[in-house]
């Protein structure tokens, strides 16, 4: 067991290491003086700010020391939580911006992932091998899973917010309110949350439903299902068993999809101007704020790695086969 | 899209599937014909194929017939569809139809290039890792696992952001080089099961070189699986490109469906009610990718008799 | 008579038309009898086995009846058959290694299965323990997952589960084809033991391995291309077969007890006819050294000696 998780952790550590290295390398591969380039692109007019930025970058990049030392310095700054200063929101530290944005992104992502996974699996299992449902409703699943996240977001925003006026179009809460725990403010938060959540939920739901439908069809054809049927087990029992076994690859599927899902959340936030990580990325790109962009990148990698680790742990808890194998290896 | 698990392993039918109807000898000879026979009768496959081909023709031929520039300001801004402008104009007076046709073209280009590249890399890594085993497998597997957990889109965003000039080709190249890991993993596990079969052993014992065994004995035996993998990679590349374009990291010198969406949002098409600006591009992407996915299910049913409903 | 099959005809639906996998088969299995069912792949032996317990989605019951202990089995009606499955007719499948749900503890799976038939696990727990003991499995296996058992253990576990409710008829479908020689023999002996102890009243032992069948079966029935070719006491089939096909089959074995029967069967020149449009008359005609004009008509199964049926004009 320890060996298994040790190996997993090693992979995650290597992944993080690779991500940080990519992050460090990319600006250095770009032609020209990276600092001049960065400051010039920053389009900050105030000379004092330019000087401050120059000094900061020089310090951070440390171009006058050997390459390996630059690399170590980069790690040093990173471990101190120093991701540099944002250009877009100068002089706010990048880490502050990220910490402020993260709750919004998580508030969208976590409920959308969990609910769509649960509902999609249930629905897919229900539709499988029921001809009428399979043929009429599952095509909808295919359309949903093929839909780009931002497009569904646009359609929802246009139809339910602009045309019908049921929900607000953008931001996380009404600007006329100041953040507090008042019911009025919470209500505004909720109203602004519904559409981005719904659009994330729907696209993911389609994917899970189809994945489960296809998996369960294989499971229902599996030998253990045929054996149960030959011995006259109730249809419900056979389906329950097939469902349990089909859920396992869906857990792995969740881990594999995390990157795509996060990207989906980012573009959804952009459509709704929802002040999460995705909104930060858009601002960073528009104002050529590379420190912000790189900081966000590291945060996303870190978040995905943590989520992967949680999924791994859950999987070993749920699948007796891995559990048995791991215990056998540990003993 | 839970791509990886949408394709389950094709027919690892352990032994002669029990309940196979009386199988007289000539059946083996008819197998190729059988596949085609079922393929032509599979509604999902045929329907998906028709949609994909129709859109492909639209993307390839469309810009040749409808020769308006997708980027020039040609007409009155914000025209609704109909009359002179079949699909209306943007708020700068660009021809939405021309944008859509050019966008479709680059969508197929990105899908074919990015998906094709990812398929080649994924297969190469999967074959070698699965067939050679040992240290090679260990190293390739580690690499695959690392790339599998890195959120590739985030990497793409970083890379693309630093590139001053971006083309559809470069975009496809980057997508191809980052989206292969799951395919490699799937191909590897398939190769593992095939590598232990008698006919592969026989080839190995008679001194056939590795690459020949892979191309002659292993790959053809999982060709259906490889084809389905390519289709999923194609769809994935299209969606990844659309996401990049939408964030504002799309081609700087061309038109794409994702870029149309990006422009529409940036210039408040939503608030201005210019729905004809953002509905067609998304619809185009959804149609291409959705039709590919449906095709894939159809293919799965054709290749795996157990899934056919009769 | 425990089992009485009359004129049973079962087809497979395919897009090209009906494959007549089982064409008017009539036979009986007595109480306490083990019937060995032999034939090449495609002879209809597996189709027959499945028809008696559960047809798959492509099979159609076209005609004929199956009677078990005087009651007719509704073999074409999947729902109605459920009442008979497990309690009256049970199956040890070919795929015993993968017949157990990988993610359920074995004991829990048994309990769930029993529950489907309204049988309380508690009420059979003791007997289950005794039978596990009989096949030399520790009672702890019930608390384990299939992955924790060896192949042989899984095989024995499935044998115990399938016979737990003392079915009247047990169908053992190619149970030995995946096993090595010594295990094959052990499995066959165990099955015979189940019959001797009354766990099952009668048994149909389907195999392509005539020599193995000979060791445990009382009667052997040879099928060819969806029809009965010959049925006789086991010794008679092996030592004095009358049907040319059975003869070829037996002759192709260097001596009784030698393995690789399947390969030898394929050694008979020619191949079975297509069952999509089977030719009129005797289906072995094209491969038969004795074929003559009269073989253009379908030969009826004639009782040439007590308990010895042969479907051949020359016999």
**Superfamily (CATH H level) name of chain A:** MetI-like
Terminal residue distance of chain A: 9 Å
Evaluate the radius of gyration of chain A.
24 Å
- Radius of gyration of CA atoms of chain B, rounded to a whole number: 23 Å
Describe the structure concisely.
With 310 residues, chain B is mainly alpha-helical. Chain B has helices at residues 3-6, 27-41, 43-65, 96-132, 134-149, 152-162, 168-178, 181-195, 198-205, 210-218, 223-249, 257-266, 269-272, 275-303.
Topology:
The complex is a heterotrimer of chains A (331), B (310) and C (315).
Chain A: H1 2-29, H2 34-42, H3 47-61, H4 67-79, H5 94-127, H6 131-136, H7 138-146, H8 149-163, H9 183-220, H10 223-230, H11 235-272, H12 277-286, H13 290-318, H14 320-330
Helix pairs in contact in A: 1-13, 5-9, 5-11, 5-12, 5-13, 7-9, 8-9, 8-11, 9-11, 11-12, 11-13, 12-13, 13-14
Chain B: H1 3-6, H2 27-41, H3 43-65, H4 96-132, H5 134-149, H6 152-162, H7 168-178, H8 181-195, H9 198-205, H10 210-218, H11 223-249, H12 257-266, H13 269-272, H14 275-303
Helix pairs in contact in B: 2-14, 3-4, 3-14, 4-5, 4-7, 4-8, 4-11, 4-12, 4-14, 5-8, 6-11, 9-10, 11-12, 11-14, 12-14
Chain C: E1 3-14, E2 17-29, E3 34-38, H1 45-53, E4 59-68, E5 71-72, H2 78-81, E6 89-92, H3 106-116, H4 121-134, H5 151-162, E7 169-173, H6 181-196, E8 202-207, H7 210-216, E9 219-224, E10 227-233, H8 234-239, H9 244-251, H10 261-266, E11 302-305, E12 308-310
Parallel strand pairs in C: 3-8, 3-9, 6-7, 7-8
Antiparallel strand pairs in C: 1-2, 1-4, 4-5, 9-10, 10-12, 11-12
Supply the key terms:
heterotrimer, A: 331 residues, mainly alpha, MetI-like fold, 0% strand, globular, C: 315 residues, alpha/beta, Rossmann fold, 2 domains, eight-stranded mixed sheet, four-stranded antiparallel sheet, 10 helices
């Amino acid at each position: 067991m320890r060996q298994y998780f040790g190996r997993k952790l090693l992979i995650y550590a290597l992944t993080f290491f690779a991500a940080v290295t990519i992050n460090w390398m990319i600006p250095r591969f770009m032609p020209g003086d990276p600092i001049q380039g960065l400051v010039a692109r920053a389009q900050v007019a105030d000379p004092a700010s330019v000087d401050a930025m120059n000094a900061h970058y020089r310090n951070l990049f440390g171009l006058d020391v050997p390459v390996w030392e630059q690399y170590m310095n980069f790690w040093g700054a990173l471990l101190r939580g120093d991701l540099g200063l944002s250009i877009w929101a100068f002089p706010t530290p990048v880490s502050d911006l990220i910490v402020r944005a993260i709750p919004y992104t998580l508030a969208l992502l976590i409920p959308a992932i969990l609910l769509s996974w649960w509902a999609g699996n249930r629905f897919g299992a229900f539709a499988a091998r029921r001809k009428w449902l399979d043929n009429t409703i599952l095509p909808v699943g295919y359309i949903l899973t093929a839909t780009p996240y931002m497009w569904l977001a646009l359609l929802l925003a246009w139809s339910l917010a602009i045309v019908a006026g049921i929900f607000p179009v953008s931001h996380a809460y009404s600007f006329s309110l100041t953040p507090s725990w008042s019911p009025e403010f919470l209500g505004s938060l909720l109203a602004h949350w519904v559409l981005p959540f719904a659009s994330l939920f729907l696209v993911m739901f389609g994917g899970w439903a189809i994945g489960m439908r296809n998996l369960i069809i294989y499971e229902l054809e599996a030998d253990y299902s045929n054996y149960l049927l030959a011995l006259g087990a109730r249809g419900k029992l056979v389906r329950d068993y097939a469902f349990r076994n089909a859920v396992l690859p869906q857990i792995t599927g969740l881990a594999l999809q995390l990157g795509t899902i996060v990207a989906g959340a980012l573009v959804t936030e952009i459509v709704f101007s929802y002040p999460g990580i995705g909104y930060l990325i858009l601002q960073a790109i528009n104002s050529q704020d590379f420190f912000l962009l790189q900081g966000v990148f590291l945060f996303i990698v870190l978040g995905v790695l943590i989520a992967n680790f949680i999924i791994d742990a859950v999987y070993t808890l749920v699948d007796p086969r891995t559990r048995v194998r791991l215990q056998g290896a540990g003993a | 899209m839970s791509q990886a698990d949408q394709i389950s392993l094709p027919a690892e039918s352990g032994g002669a599937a029990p309940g196979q109807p009386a199988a007289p000898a000539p059946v083996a000879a008819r197998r190729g014909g059988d596949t085609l026979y079922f393929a032509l009768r599979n509604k999902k496959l045929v329907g998906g194929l028709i949609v994909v081909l129709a859109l492909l023709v639209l993307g390839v031929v469309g810009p040749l017939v409808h020769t308006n520039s997708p980027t020039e300001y040609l007409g009155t801004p914000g025209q609704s569809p109909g009359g002179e402008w079949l699909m209306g104009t943007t708020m700068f007076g660009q021809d939405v139809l021309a944008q859509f046709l050019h966008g479709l073209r680059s969508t197929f280009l990105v899908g074919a290039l990015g998906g094709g590249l990812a398929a080649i890399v994924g297969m190469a890594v999967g074959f070698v890792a699965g067939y050679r085993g040992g240290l090679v497998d260990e190293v390739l597997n580690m690499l695959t696992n690392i790339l599998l957990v890195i959120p590739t889109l985030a990497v793409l965003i970083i890379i693309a952001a630093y590139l001053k000039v971006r083309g559809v080709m470069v975009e496809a190249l980057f997508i191809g080089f980052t989206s292969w890991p799951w395919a490699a993993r799937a191909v590897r596990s398939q190769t593992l099961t095939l590598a232990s079969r008698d006919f592969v052993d026989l080839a190995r014992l008679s001194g056939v070189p590795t690459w020949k065994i892979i191309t002659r004995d292993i790959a053809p035996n999982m060709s259906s699986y490889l084809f389905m993998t390519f289709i999923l990679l194609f769809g994935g590349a299209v969606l990844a490109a659309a996401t990049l374009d939408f964030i504002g990291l799309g081609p700087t010198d061309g038109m794409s469906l994702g870029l149309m969406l990006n422009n529409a949002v940036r210039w408040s098409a939503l608030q201005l009610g210019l729905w004809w600006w953002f509905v067609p591009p998304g619809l185009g992407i959804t149609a291409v990718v959705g039709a590919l996915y449906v095709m894939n299910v159809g293919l799965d049913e054709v290749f795996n008799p157990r899934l056919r409903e009769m | 008579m425990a089992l009485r099959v009359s004129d049973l005809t079962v087809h497979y639906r395919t897009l090209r038309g009906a494959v007549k996998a089982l064409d008017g088969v009539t036979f009986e299995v007595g109480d306490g009898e083990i019937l060995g069912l032999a034939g090449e792949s495609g002879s209809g032996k597996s189709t027959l086995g499945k028809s008696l317990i559960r047809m798959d989605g492509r099979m159609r019951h076209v005609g004929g009846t199956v009677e078990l202990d005087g009651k007719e089995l509704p073999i074409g009606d999947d729902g109605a058959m459920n009442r008979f499955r497990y309690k009256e007719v049970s199956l040890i499948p070919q795929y015993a290694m993968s017949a157990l749900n990988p993610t359920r503890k074995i004991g829990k799976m048994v309990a769930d299965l029993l529950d489907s038939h309204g049988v309380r696990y508690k009420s059979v727990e003791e007997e289950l323990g005794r039978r596990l003991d009989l096949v030399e499995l520790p009672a702890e296996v019930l608390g384990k997952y299939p992955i924790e058992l060896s192949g042989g253990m899984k095989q024995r576990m499935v044998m115990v589960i399938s016979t737990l409710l003392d079915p009247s008829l047990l169908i053992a479908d190619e149970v030995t084809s995946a096993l090595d020689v010594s295990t094959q023999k052990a499995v066959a002996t165990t099955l015979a033991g189940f019959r001797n102890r009354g766990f099952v009243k009668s048994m149909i032992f389907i195999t392509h391995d005539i020599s193995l069948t000979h060791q445990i079966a009382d009667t052997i029935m040879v099928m060819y291309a969806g029809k009965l070719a010959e049925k006789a006491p086991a010794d008679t089939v092996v030592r004095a077969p009358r049907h040319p096909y059975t003869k070829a089959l037996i002759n192709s074995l260097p001596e009784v007890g030698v393995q690789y029967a399947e390969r030898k069967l394929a050694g008979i020149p020619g191949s079975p006819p297509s069952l999509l449009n089977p030719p009129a008359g005797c289906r072995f005609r094209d491969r038969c050294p004795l074929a003559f004009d009269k073989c253009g008509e379908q030969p009826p199964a004639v009782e040439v000696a007590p308990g010895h049926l042969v479907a051949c004009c020359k016999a």
